[in-house]
Fold each of these.
Amino acid sequence: MFGSLFHRLNRNVQIVGVGLLLASVGSEAFAQSARLTFLHSNDMGEIGAKPGYGGFPELATLIKRERERSPSAITTFGGDLISPSLMSGLSHGVEMISMMNAVKMDVAVLGNHEFDFGPAITRERIAQSNFPWLASNITLKPSEAPLGSKKLYVKKVGDFTVGFFGLLTQETIDLSSPGEGILFDDVIETAKKSIAELKAQGADIIVALTHLDYQNDLRLAREVKGITLILGGHDHRAIAGTEGRTVILQAGSDLRYLGVVDLEIARKEKRGKKYLSVVPSWKLLATAGVPADAEIKSAVAAFEKTLDKKLDIAVGKTDVALDTKRASVRTKQTIFGGFIAKAMRHEVNADVGFTNGGGIRGDREYKEGTVLTRKDILKELPFGNVTVSLKVTGAQLTELVEHSVSKVEDAAGRFGHYAGLSYRYDVTKAVGSRVQNIDVNGQPIDAVKVYVLATNDYVAKGGDGYAMLKAVPRIVDKSAGTLMATTVMNYLEAQGAITAAE
Ligand SMILES: [Zn+2]
């Protein structure tokens, strides 16, 4: 009777779902009842409105309206706030916390992107927040200073107690930069333990804030008893429905929607047995076309003005036309990709510079003579990655080059841009034996020789499948590395211009 009902939403479409999770029949002694409302968002990007969807000013209006309708509404966030956006790349997410404080967030869960600038920044942002951050499945090594996050959060609404716990993906270790001192525990085990503790604290309703693959949200609903509501993030899905007796909602991404869940709850009694009746309903409200909240709008404008001043500074020009289109940087060595690799090689004094095409994001063309600003470089390299240097053997370097062309026909992000290394490849050959004639600085590659490789911290830790780099010795590691965008800006400033010369 209560099968899964999932509504996928297209942009600007609003679907309202109603479900009945625990029906009650027969004689009942009515005790107390209440409506619990949750206002959820997750995976934020730029703070202002974009074509086709709103930003914080529009979200704030929706939150206000829902609070008028349901005054004790709890406002929740599903993770990924302080990165990555153009602004947060420069500010490390200060404005994001300011926005969340302004809309009076009640409780949030940490996402993997909260660790993009390292745990010291995570700690700083948590300290600036006027609301608790949950991370129930984080354990710290004794050497690691406390983050300031909480395991559990309990809120009273009338006579009812709502217990929250928060889970973030164990993949954070590979997806972001939490460092060595933070451990991510199993989500199912953590959920069971958290629920028991919340119940011991008198929770009537259990809410999981999650920043997990959607499959893991489903697992939680199926394998862990007692969760009434899962408010998620990470997968950027606009989705709401039930799985068994659990409601799952995720509100898309980038401030496109406000997710709203109402739980009509009542203490009831049937044949002498007390129980809690829960009738949920839900909706996803599009931010598109919503009038902006004036106060938040002016705060956004102030942040954008500061950013523009910081970004509109010219760092050099290009003497040649540049192409950073997605289809180009993922399939062939481009002049700009080569320039990035050169800048990285120069930064750490390496033999070879290498970066993955998937990290180049401008997706545009520049005419010959174009003046390049900091904003241009940051739009090309928005991820906040840093330049590192590693020691690799010729054999490992050959494996790396093979890997970089292993999915070139799919335009995969792993495609490599190099400085100081040339090669030929044949896409018709089997993966793993496509590459020939690798030269390093004009000499045939030597399988046993050790080369210094400049690259970014993302591929260095095995991102985009570069597993061969994971365990090689580090010379300049992530903690010591310069922001890649800064590497490129500094090099361009020193050179004055991008030229066609290798
Ligand atoms: Zn995420």
Note: The pocket of zinc ion is lined by residues 80, 111-113, 211, 234 (CB under 6 Å).
Amino acid sequence: MPAWSFPATALSALHAGFRPHLLDVEPDSWALEPSGVPDDVALRARAAVPVAPFGAEPDLEGWATWSAETGVPAVFDAAACFDSLGRAPMPDGPPFAVVVSMHATKVFGIGEGAFVLSNDRSWVLRIRRFINFGFTAARRSDVFGTNAKLSEYGAAVGLAGLDAWPETRRRWMAVAGDFTTRLAAAGLRAQPGFGGPAAVPYCVADFETPERRQCALEALSRAGIETRQWWGGGQHANPALATLSRDDLAVTDTLAARTLGLPFWIDIATRDVDEIFSVLATSVG
Ligand SMILES: Cc1ncc(COP(=O)(O)O)c(C=O)c1O
């Protein structure tokens, strides 16, 4: 799995009894790509966990091909990919799963909760059993399981959210379009995939150097504007994950040092956006 991700990626693998190995990402996509998995790592791996960073479209096709070649299944952390997944057809071939978050910080937020997609019916059935006490057709724990079902309340919010989705999506895209124009005017870019074609819930600006990022962070903070380093220094920078085995993580470390999540949400007021970009214009312009 990539080091450039939220710690939930490694934590969930650890909970499932695996020992994560962290790999570096590509500078253009900010993602671990199949070509970035060294042969010796692929040989030892029991699963790959690619991450689609900040809602970018996951490379389902590329990883399906990699799985077919290596015999290693892929489980995608596509936490922020509710919209971009609609553009990525499910490839046939080796079974894989895609996990999508519906936490409040996502474009399709219902509070808490997630769903799993798979191209394989038997995987879907196994996951259904696992999240429902290991029940099979009989109301009996035939296999190991837990209670990880979506709450009734969350499901109701989700159903209402689906009715509103076309308009919600339009509004996310409008804010992202405005940010894209303003970022370009400030000589900045956001993460790959920001501004279209899919709606994403984050605007992670790339300041190109740690010094420029620090200037922006301090200027925004002085103006009372919060920012987020969504993935901190990468998964390996979390004390609980510091001992995980890893390859060289130079790109991850660079991204962690020079990117910053700007305030970005669906109904952010124009005057707030004006203020953010006027601070940025003076600090990095
Ligand atoms: C890449 C990634 N994986 C997992 C998660 C955790 O998702 P959840 O909050 O639904 O547990 C996040 C949260 O933002 C994330 O960015």
Note: The longest strand covers residues 96-101.
Amino acid sequence: MSGTMPELPEVETVRRELEPWLTGRTIVRARRASAPPGPKYARLERASGQRIVAVGRRGKFLVLPLDGGDDLVVHLGMTGVITSVRPASHVRAVLELDGEAPSVLYFQDPRRFGRFLTVPSGDYRSLPTLHHLGPEPLDPSFRPRAFHEALAHSRAPIKALLLGQRPVAGVGNIYADEALWRARIHPRVPAGELTRAQAAALLRAIRAVLARSIELQGTTFRDYRTVNGQPGAFVAELAAYGHEGDPCRRCRAPLRKIVVGGRGTCFCPGCQKGPR
Ligand SMILES: [Zn+2]
């Protein structure tokens, strides 16, 4: 699982851990540590003196509304970890909090793909992925018909379109492969060719894999904390991702690996219906 970015279930797992710790706390001081000035840590110091109203999530971003008119936005990148235990190295940002211990939050990010910044409340123009992010997959008000409409005019392969986060938020490489396998849809089918029934089946599958993975605290999250890379429990339930050459759990055909949207993609040539 190395080299796999945290996806929605992993970020939701982090959010749930942070919520009881951070909600209602005032940030006494926010500062960059060993990170050069730049857009990834923009306006971080502005969080100083503001109270954390809530710990939210949009797609793979943590979004913490502050009471002074800003949002603190965090993206874990490849290797970002939020911890109250002072890491030995690669600390990029630090929040000093009021109230009882633990009252210092460290953002550690060895590979530097993460972000930890503030933006004016709700203004995500400096974060294009967040700015253009599609609906939350687990929001019950997101209807299958709206999902079908979001796919309708695209000739991109369905998997590539999902990875772009616009038809629906938070589906990355692992869960795209799993959901397409469950819905029996070939990853290279042009998105606009999905029928309404197929789009509904795909949305159901996306919801099922994400909800189950959140229950099991994700697939890869534990890799980020332990040297030995003990994976999250969902890894045992993966039916497609990482199973190249293994027999399909449904039809026993050997799974194949191809490249779609620049990413390695596992699918079943036996039961995932191909492009016309
Ligand atoms: Zn199959």
Note: Confidence is low (pLDDT under 50) at residues 221-229.
